[in-house]
Design a protein that fits this description.
With 505 residues, the protein is α/β, with parallel strands linked by helices. The chain contains 16 helices and 22 strands. The strands form 4 sheets. Strands 16, 17, 18, 19, 20, 21 and 22 form a 7-stranded antiparallel sheet that branches. The protein has a 6-stranded mixed sheet with strand order 1-5-4-2-3-6, with helices on both faces. A 5-stranded mixed sheet has the order 8-7-9-10-11, sandwiched between helices. Strand 4 and strand 5 form a beta hairpin. The radius of gyration is 22 Å and the shape is globular. The protein starts with 12 loop residues before the first helix and ends in a 13-residue tail after the last helix. The model has no long low-confidence stretch (mean pLDDT 96).
Length: 505
């Protein structure tokens, strides 16, 4: 295997004979590259030989960890199966025992690690990224996935060509994992009475799993874009984007459904719309679920990401039940690892990743397990609707997650400057929109907490060339909008390297 190069022009001899792996594809906790699609002029960052090199490098690393039995699966993109095959060739060249579970969700691959007694996983998925992107979510110690240390070592092996080919590689096709996963997930749970549920899958792979699982739980399921279509004809399956959430809300109002669940492209995230057709961000769904769990698990610990609502800290039910809440870095790998380290019963991300540990789950992020937790909560609510449960939460106004373009090569440096600016502002007794700063949490970018409980957050995206902004107000919706337009955006506008936003309040 040749040492990969960082750039190549497509439709050339070299592109077909030399591995291409752009260094920026190695993210903090997984890998994402622009693979390219016909009709888009953006230059590919990865070719199939590059994927094979990635597999050989991953297999080399798995030998270092003594974890050479690896589950592979792929999401529903027209090129994902081909990429998985190339990755598999590389893993086998490294002497790994590969267990191929076919078309799957990321949580199905994680479950298969337990079901097949395999320590490692390599799930080919671009998650919520648009068509043309691909990537791999990897792990070598269930239920954890790689973090910066493992990704750094993998990057070193691949880009410097430090491959260690070995004999003895093998490939086994595993049948029936979908059925095993759904049966294990549902368990003996059955709703006391049917609940009308919308399953929105955006034509992604979750359409092959979620409706069946929800029906086994006793739900009356209305399918919304559950047919598999890798062109994603309506929108990218991402329950954090308002386009998908608004479509779900409209469907609730049209059908009279009691709740809508939206799943992303690889099924590890879940978005929720209530019975009135109002979107509830995942951090507040997590707060509702935490309330329900804490009733029977007094003194429990929950982990939430820095994008999440500050209401966890002031919620009276959590305080009454002696709950501990830990705010940590955004990212499925970080929250998964932190939840395990703290022996927390669950972890929540505003993006819709939910991590449930025993007795509710196996510790990894799973959108359908999250939907099950919401149904269990409603089952325990003595007939109360989700909209009614929501009204009892501390009142806050939280923005959508807003992203602006910033190249991968410079985004962390820009965020470092923004963090330093906020820290200086706080040290000098500065204010944001006239309100004193309580503290600046720098575990992941800058979360600037105000004395009135509001906050503003700026951080670098871990998997795209973007900065991420979230604001929340305890005062009003208008104050929330002002925190962005008058508090954060003017600061970001001083950096010419920062591009426009994908969506704003």
């Amino acid at each position: 295997m040749k040492t990969p190069v960082s750039s190549l022009l497509p439709n050339t001899f070299d592109f077909e004979n030399t591995p291409l792996v752009k260094p920026t594809g190695f993210r903090e906790y997984d890998a994402r590259w622009w693979f390219g699609i016909i009709g888009n002029d953006k230059v590919p960052e990865l070719n199939l030989l590059g994927v094979e090199a990635l597999g050989l490098g991953l297999g080399t690393l798995l030998h270092e960890y003594g974890a050479t039995k690896v589950v592979v699966g792929h999401d529903f993109r027209f090129y994902s199966l081909t990429i998985k095959k190339s990755l598999t060739i590389g893993l086998m060249r490294a002497g790994c025992e590969v267990l191929d579970i076919g078309l799957a969700l990321s949580p199905v691959a994680y479950y298969a690690q337990f079901a097949l007694d395999a320590p490692a996983v390599a799930m080919v998925t671009a998650s919520h990224n648009e068509n043309g992107w691909t990537g791999v979510k990897m792990g070598a110690k269930r239920p954890l996935t790689f973090g910066p240390d493992e990704m750094g070592r993998l990057k070193e092996i691949v880009l410097e060509g430090k491959f260690a080919p070995r004999a003895g590689g093998s490939l086994t096709y595993v049948e029936g994992m979908k059925e095993r996963y759904i049966k294990a997930l549902v368990g003996d749970f059955k709703l006391k009475k049917p609940i009308k549920v919308i399953a929105a899958c955006g034509n992604g792979a979750a359409g092959a799993y979620a409706p069946e699982a929800l029906r086994m739980m006793g739900a009356d399921v209305i399918e919304m874009d559950c047919n598999l279509d890798y062109t994603f004809p309506k929108y990218n399956p991402n329950p954090e984007d308002v386009e998908m959430l608004h479509s779900m809300a409209e469907q609730v109002r049209e059908t009279g459904a009691e709740v809508a669940f939206g799943f992303d492209g690889d099924g590890d995230r879940c978005g929720v719309v209530d019975d009135k057709g109002e979107e509830i961000f995942a951090d507040k769904i997590g707060l509702l679920v935490a309330r329900d769990i804490s009733k029977t698990h007094k003194g429990a610990t929950f982990v939430v990401d820095v994008k999440s609502t500050g209401a966890y800290e002031i919620d009276p039910v959590l305080k009454e039940n002696n709950v501990t809440v830990d705010y940590y870095k955004t990212g499925h790998s970080y929250i998964k690892r932190r939840t395990t380290e703290l022996n927390a019963i669950a972890g929540f991300e505003k993006s819709g990743h939910f991590f449930f540990r025993a007795p509710y789950g196996l510790g990894y992020d799973d959108g359908i397990v999250a939907a099950k937790a919401v149904l269990q909560m409603l089952d325990n609510a003595n007939g109360a609707k989700l909209s009614e449960l929501k009204q009892d939460l501390p009142k806050t106004w939280t923005s959508i997650t807003m992203s602006c373009h910033c190249d991968d090569e410079i985004k962390y440096g820009i965020v470092d400057k923004i963090v330093a600016g906020f820290e200086k502002l706080a040290a000098d007794g500065g204010k944001i929109l006239g309100t004193d700063i309580k503290n600046v949490n720098t575990i992941n970018g800058a979360r600037v907490n105000l004395v009135n409980g509001s906050f503003v957050l700026v951080r670098a995206s871990s998997n795209k060339p973007e900065l991420v902004v979230v604001v929340e107000s305890t005062i009003s919706e208008q104050d929330m909008k002002d925190l962005f337009h008058k508090g954060v955006k003017p600061l970001l506008d001083t950096y010419p390297e920062i591009g426009g936003f994908n969506q704003t309040v």
